[in-house]
Amino acid sequence: MTQLAAVLILCFVAFGARAAEPHPLASIHKDIDRLAAAFSDGFGQDDRKRRWIKTGPLFGQDEEGAVAFFALSGLDLMNGTEEYMAVFARGQDREVPKAKEKPYRLILVTLIGTRWSRAFDWKSAAVRPGEISLKGLSWGEGDAGCCPTRAINVTFRLAKAEGADTRYPLLTEDERPIPSQPSK
Q1: Is residue 159 part of a domain?
Q2: Which of 80, 128, 148, 171 is deepest in the core (most CB within 10 A)?
Q3: What's the chain's average pLDDT?
Q4: Quick check: 158 and 58 in contact, CB under 8 A?
Q5: Where would I find the H helices in the chain?
Q6: First vs last Cα of the chain: how many Å apart?
């Protein structure tokens, strides 16, 4: 009787696990896996544990979006890192679903930082309607390759192309230095 009970419990657990809905951000991780594979030269590695995803009202107060940050390290067998930002919109942009659909769709991806240009603190990301802002560091004159020192704030803005009949946005950016605090 105990073997039969164990088999029944395993069946219930297995069916219960299959019926459970995946986390909505799981589809974003799958898309990032594909992007990392596409952008890699075969040597570059994506550290999944370092990824950062931030959700918020990116497309208006009632229209949630998600911004995902990921990096590829070791490209060209070098010790640099390339940082990317991918923007996702909620839903599949259909009034009537065709079938079970992914909770988010990729609308743009861009390279935002590299060694010798700038690096970001992804956890500082703020998502507001039409924009994403991040704090980071940029290399100043005399900085070593390991150690950027110039604090920056970058705001990425999503805008629709003038006269374009598309829902996919253009991306512009504004980088500003963060004034240093006087020492006490």
Answers
A1: yes
A2: 148
A3: 81
A4: yes
A5: 2-19, 26-39
A6: 75
